[in-house]
Amino acid sequence: MNYRYSDYSIEQLHREIGVLKEKAQKAEQLGNVSEVQINERKMQVALAYTINPGDFSAEEKYQLKMEPGFTFKINYINGVFAWGHRINLLEEMYEKEEALPISLLGKKVTK
């Protein structure tokens, strides 16, 4: 089996996402919080490879799917990761730059 999601076909990615979802659900039933988080992160990265990075633009703001009220301003895209800064409800931009899989980005914010 391949170890890099960039080498997977779309079908393999969808299969892997299903396997990871199952693992996360089992870990949740067993109360293993860290294993749930690890599998959910892997799932988001695998999911990012099913999305076109060209759909996202630098200097634009996007909603964060898992964190209502937060947005993310992209500085640049590298592969399936968006590098940028989180912005809270008060429009305060976090100082620390971070990389998020593009699968965590929602709709573009237009203002």
Automatic annotation (TrEMBL):
Q: What is this protein called?
A: YfhH family protein
Enumerate the Gene3D superfamilies for this protein: Hypothetical protein YfhH domain (1.10.287.880), Hypothetical protein YfhH like domains (2.30.30.340)
SUPFAM superfamilies according to UniProt: Hypothetical protein YfhH (SSF101697)
